[in-house]
Amino acid sequence: MAAEREPPPLGDGKPTDFEDLEDGEDLFTSTVSTLESSPSSPEPASLPAEDISANSNGPKPTEVVLDDDREDLFAEATEEVSLDSPEREPILSSEPSPAVTPVTPTTLIAPRIESKSMSAPVIFDRSREEIEEEANGDIFDIEIGVSDPEKVGDGMNAYMAYRVTTKTSLSMFSKSEFSVKRRFSDFLGLHSKLASKYLHVGYIVPPAAEKSIVGMTKVKVGKEDSSSTEFVEKRRAALERYLQRTVKHPTLLQDPDLRQFLESSELPRAVNTQALSGAGILRMVNKAADAVNKMTIKMNESDAWFEEKQQQFENLDQQLRKLHVSVEALVCHRKELSANTAAFAKSAAMLGNSEDHTALSRALSQLAEVEEKIDQLHQEQAFADFYMFSELLSDYIRLIAAVKGVFDHRMKCWQKWEDAQITLLKKREAEAKMMVANKPDKIQQAKNEIREWEAKVQQGERDFEQISKTIRKEVGRFEKERVKDFKTVIIKYLESLVQTQQQLIKYWEAFLPEAKAIA
Amino acid sequence: MMEGLDDGPDFLSEEDRGLKAINVDLQSDAALQVDISDALSERDKVKFTVHTKSSLPNFKQNEFSVVRQHEEFIWLHDSFVENEDYAGYIIPPAPPRPDFDASREKLQKLGEGEGSMTKEEFTKMKQELEAEYLAIFKKTVAMHEVFLCRVAAHPILRRDLNFHVFLEYNQDLSVRGKNKKEKLEDFFKNMVKSADGVIVSGVKDVDDFFEHERTFLLEYHNRVKDASAKSDRMTRSHKSAADDYNRIGSSLYALGTQDSTDICKFFLKVSELFDKTRKIEARVSADEDLKLSDLLKYYLRESQAAKDLLYRRSRSLVDYENANKALDKARAKNKDVLQAETSQQLCCQKFEKISESAKQELIDFKTRRVAAFRKNLVELAELELKHAKVEYVSRARWLTPVIPALWEAKAGRSRGQEIETILATTGNLQLLQNCLAVLNGDT
Which residues form a coiled coil (chain A) (predicted)? Predict the structure, then answer.
């Protein structure tokens, strides 16, 4: 086992300990769904951990702590800095002003991390000890559920409030189990805060559920029909998946905003997530500007890995979209099938009633009953189709959009670096001119500017490398997650299909003797 | 494009023996046996080869075949309907016109859209459409055959001269389809008939048996119509769901070939499974179609024929009563008494003849109906069971290799092999269920 694993960045002792820990327990208590990808995956040490809890979203943090120690350091450092610095406020405010504000703390940190890495082994060991403690102690997990949607208020100001329940044994939370009430715009607010902090540094932030004006209006107006309940259920499930994905991400988990979201009972209303607010319009303008920029930036891709990955994601996107369309068609047809089966059942019952041969009449009524039960089955199957398969696909389509966004940010970063280099060049030329023209004070100014811009160029380069590194790691993580997710869901879905078949067999077996009994 | 599908006949000989008499329980009689041994589909017509085996003296040979087209069947049916002598019998309903339009359109659309899909998708869809075409083809052959068999089995109708001509005359009967004028005449005739039917049905029948039958048939006919329509729709949605599996399968296949990670093997396997599922689901829907929808459609037509019989009888009853009244009037006036008497006699005879045969016919109808329903419902249940089991086993079987393969990576081969051996040694469904329970629940 150890041979297959690529050794973690610093030291090998820890992972082996971890594994010894796991082998003692029975690994395969969990369902099919927690099974891992093939042994060739580079981080199998994580697998045992995953199998411990029956929860598919639970065990992630263990692996996280194991492999992403660097990240944790980084995250902690970021936290420490931001807790002290006055820049805390802008970060927490919901103003997603592009890229500028949050960058500053990072720049302060960067040199610190550099120096820290010298003494990194010490810190590493310390944190690893911590990890070991936690692993020895409770199961290191966090479990989130979104439930109990209730309608609050009336008329157009009404909204749905969801209960967010967190069960965790992480030490950073004050309690081990708590729940709060949140509304949809709170979720959107959380997402925009996380996005503004992390997206441009290369982290793939899971996208939030989508706004739906039609759906919400129906709920507000108070229509108590099946489509609005379906809508609420769909949204609830989407929000739950969103939170689960977010906490799986090691860096995002450490974020104070996320903690505040999960813990504090009162959250400042995120007004600027409304579509028609000032911030909303600003967002739209930014999006348009970004689109234009993307077309004009011609990046010199020095790293083939990025190009390859981008192409890969493009293809994946297309394929997923196609698959999604097919699955939606299946959901639609199955619903139709269920409706038609119900209609037929009724009709067969009536036919049975009018038939005057008693045995045949009874058999026909039985047939009607069987068909009705089958209709129920079809309905359930349609739900399964939808919630498992189709929603997974649409989630991933949105996730890939986020991934593409991250790649775009990298491009913008490169652009900034390029611009800084060009400006530096210009300043140097200006200085040279000043030298020739011999204006001492202007020369001084020029020299200052040059120094400033040199620093900026260096900063730009560092940023670019940082974002590239982060993206590589994130993409690796994303790929693993994706593989696991897909396998889990598809297997679960197939199991549901098997269940359906079982039921079908039972029903028809019950009907057969009745049919044979017709004299 | 249609010419390529002329290998219909081969399929017929294999599977079609079972399709014979699907809807009607028929006794095959040594004296006269009729079947459709072959069929050819040309540009827009279908040519049926009607094969007769008979020991009756009025045929020149004991065994012979002729080629007939759909219009000739209709001609035969109409000749029965128009024949006054057969007013007291349920005329077997005419087979529906072979309708390949929908299928042809789809095939054409497929040809047009060939450029926009991958080769595998195209071949898959083409196969699908060809199978559909074949199914429709087989059905229409079966329905024509059933018509002929019913006529052959009927003690009176089988002696009909037109029928013998139909069976034996080996040249073109030169029967043309009805032209516009005749179709219009038919249309008016039908309108008159239905109006008349309403009037006639208002007359209460003296005979309880017929009264009961009338109410029963009316209701039954309506309900069968409803059930047949709904069953049709259900079968169709079933089929479209099965088609979706096809598309999902090909998308997954594309995903599998695209991907560079090891999930691609997983995707390929899943796509295979979906393909299998689709085939099974398509067969389920085809079987449902055959056993249920076709049954209901056939009995829709038969109950209509039975209603027609009742109508004719009521008509003749009304005529009889009118003749009685006319006779009374004539006697009162003492004019044309003889004429009135003879016409009354005729009407009386006619009515009685019809009533007698009608009673027997209706009883036969009921027996036939019950038998046909029983046969088809039993077969439907058996087929559904068979398919469900096959699908279940194939899915479960698919799931288990995946699991051991994944487990091997971690814990070793033992558990996976355990499951495999269980599956291999016993095809027992129960055991399979236990296995799955084991996998799902606990170690």
Answer: 436-470
pTM of the shown model: 0.69
Q: Is A472 inside any structural domain?
A: no
Residue A81 lies in a domain: no
Chain A residues in contact with B429 (beta carbon < 8 A):
505
Taking alpha carbons only, the member of B194, B214, B373 closest to residue A351 is B373
Give the domain range for residue A186. Answer: 138-276
Tell me whether residue B84 is exposed, middle or buried, using C-beta atoms within 10 angstroms of its C-beta: 0 to 12, 13 to 18, 19 or more.
exposed
**What are the pLDDT digits (tens) for A296-327?**
666 666 777 888 888 888 888 888 888 888 88
**Nearest residue on chain A to B441, judged by CA atoms?**
A31
Q: What are the mean pLDDT values of chain B's consecutive 10-residue runs (443 residues total)?
A: 36 36 50 83 81 81 85 88 83 85 80 75 79 82 86 84 82 69 80 76 72 86 89 85 80 75 74 78 78 86 88 86 86 83 87 87 88 86 85 77 49 46 44 49 39
- Interface predicted TM-score (ipTM) of this complex, two decimals: 0.76
Measured in degrees and rounded to the nearest 5, phi and psi for residue B94 equal -70, 145
Q: How far is B14 from chain A (nearest CA, A)?
A: 27
Chain B: nearest CA to A308, how far in angstroms? 11
**B55 neighbors B31 (Cβ within 8 angstroms):** yes
Contact: B370, A491; criterion CB under 8 Å: no
- Residue in the block written with tokens 């009430």: A181
Residue A256 within any structural domain of the chain: yes
- Domain of A156: which CATH number? 3.30.1520.10
DSSP states of B375-434: HHHHHHHHHHHHHHHHHHHHHHHHHHHHHHHHHHHHT-SHHHHHHHHHHHH---HHHHHH
- For chain B, the first-to-last Cα distance in angstroms comes to 57
Cβ contacts from A onto B, under 8 A: 183
Distances (CA, A) of A327 to A228, A321, A485, B244: 22, 10, 17, 7
Count the domains in chain A: 1
CA distance B354 to chain A (A): 24
